[in-house]
Design goal:
- The chain starts with a helix and ends in a 5-residue tail after the last helix.
- The longest helix has 19 residues.
- The chain has a 4-stranded antiparallel β-sheet, sandwiched between helices.
- It has a single domain, classed as NADH Oxidase, CATH 3.40.109.10.
- Helix content is about 45%, strand content about 15%.
- It is α+β, with helices and mostly antiparallel strands.
- The protein binds flavin mononucleotide (FMN).
């Protein structure tokens, strides 16, 4: 598929066929994700491929419990919001493949040349580790489309980040940053409307 077609066809897919995904295809998606630009080419990421349904169900249960425990009114509207947020943060449990993206601290020249700490430099540069991870995830999403799959990026489950990091044995200085689910779409999903180009592009001459 042409890159431009893949970009135009990509849309978040949240409901999947009950079909196994060939692990070689996931490997290829992660390989392509790894070709993304990154701060100092440090490639500050790794992807944990989770195929274990008991594990994803347990993760989703912890996420749901965290959302349920959020302070909120007992109104029907508030209950509906929680229900919606819970679905968007836990549907990953039914996806054939769940990828957890873990970021690790990168090394900068500045760290050895100044008194600044890694965290200070990272903040000053506006979190290039997270920016790099975003580029990598987008590569993965486009690779999934190109290979005939659907995918969705998720940050909602991070409400239970500490608990999930323990379940996935992620230890500092590594951090869980996001999830991507992959599978064969259960149905065709229409691409979402996007804002006009004029609203997102400014030219300074
Ligand atoms: C950083 C990030 C976090 C997201 N987190 C979630 C999520 O937790 N749950 C979910 O269902 N979708 C999530 N999405 C998908 C967005 O809802 C989706 O990209 C957006 O609605 C636009 O739709 P499209 O991807 O089909 O163009 C996330 C997307 C991004 C980029």
């Amino acid at each position: 598929m042409e890159l431009r077609s893949a970009i135009e066809a990509r849309t978040s897919v949240r409901v999947f066929k009950d079909e196994k995904v060939d692990l070689l295809h996931i490997r290829e998606m992660v390989r392509l994700a790894g070709l993304a630009p990154s701060v100092n080419n440090f490639q500050p990421w790794r992807y944990i491929t989770i195929l274990n349904k008991d594990l994803t169900k347990n993760m989703a249960a912890v996420v749901a419990a965290k959302i349920e425990a959020l302070p909120s009114s007992k109104s029907i509207a508030a209950r509906n919001v929680k229900k919606q947020v819970t679905w968007f943060s836990t549907f990953f449990k039914d996806a054939p493949v769940v990828l957890a993206l873990v970021v690790k601290p990168y090394k900068t020249v500045m760290e050895s040349g100044t008194e600044l700490t890694h965290d200070e430099i990272n903040k000053m540069r506006n979190y290039p580790d997270i920016q790099s991870a975003g580029a990598s995830i987008q590569n993965l999403l486009l690779a999934a489309v190109d290979m005939g799959y659907g995918a969705c990026w998720l940050s909602g489950p991070l409400i239970a980040r500490g608990e999930i990091e323990k379940m996935l044995h992620i230890e500092p200085p590594e951090k869980l940053l996001a999830f991507v689910v992959v599978g064969k779409p259960a149905a065709k999903v229409k691409p979402k409307p996007k804002v006009n180009l004029a609203d997102t592009m400014e030219i300074i001459e």
